[in-house]
Design brief:
By secondary structure, the protein is α+β, with helices and mostly antiparallel strands. The protein has 6 helices and 5 strands, in the order ββααβααββαα. Helix content is 61%, strand content 17%. α1 crosses α5 (131-151) and α2 packs across α5.
Length: 180
């Protein structure tokens, strides 16, 4: 059975666990369930939006890149040879091809990424992180990590972070199943 933590602590001072029960199985009224779902959704949207805005601000000021650039650098830095096919990068970033094309063009002009024709498919295109891009990414990672820690991770226990990871893994899997 899935377990998550309540925000409170037990009498011993440790985080207490509660069994997660699907909302439709609780004794709450339909209206109460809808209110809980709406509140959870609003909190998610507002909090993630604010977190992204704050991360974007820190990265623009400290590393001269946007949060979208940083996210692109993360994907490229983790890829073999620090490169990904354009279409795969667009899908993983949830960007349209035109939006990614513009972003890559700007970063290419700055020397942070380069576009390469795929040897195995002349119509295919790779986006590759340059040495300058990797240097920028490493510097930005320090800022990003410190800000994520300060704004989010420091406010969570390890168990809460694990719970959050489980929740979003389940949501990601659901999206994959329903949308791909």
């Amino acid at each position: 059975m899935n377990k998550c933590l309540t925000p409170s602590t037990s009498e011993s001072g440790t985080d207490s666990e509660v069994e997660v029960v699907p909302l439709e199985l609780t004794s709450r009224s339909e209206e109460e369930r809808k209110q809980v779902i709406r509140a959870a959704w609003r909190t998610f949207i507002e909090t993630t939006g604010r977190l992204q805005d704050e991360l974007d601000k820190v990265l623009r000021e400290g590393a001269k890149i946007a949060i979208a650039d940083y996210n692109l650098f993360v994907l490229l830095s983790e890829a073999p040879d620090h490169r990904l096919r354009f279409k795969d990068l667009a899908k993983r970033m949830s960007f349209s091809k035109s939006r990614l094309s513009y972003q890559v063009k700007v970063l290419d002009k700055r020397g942070l990424v380069c576009r390469r024709t795929a040897e195995e498919d002349a119509r295919g295109l790779y986006v590759e992180l340059t040495d300058a891009g990797m240097k920028t990414y490493r510097e930005a990672s320090k800022l990003h990590s410190a800000q994520v820690k300060a704004l989010m991770l420091d406010s969570l226990s390890l168990q809460e972070a694990e719970c959050l990871q489980k929740i979003f893994s389940r949501v990601a899997q659901n999206i994959e199943e329903l949308c791909d």
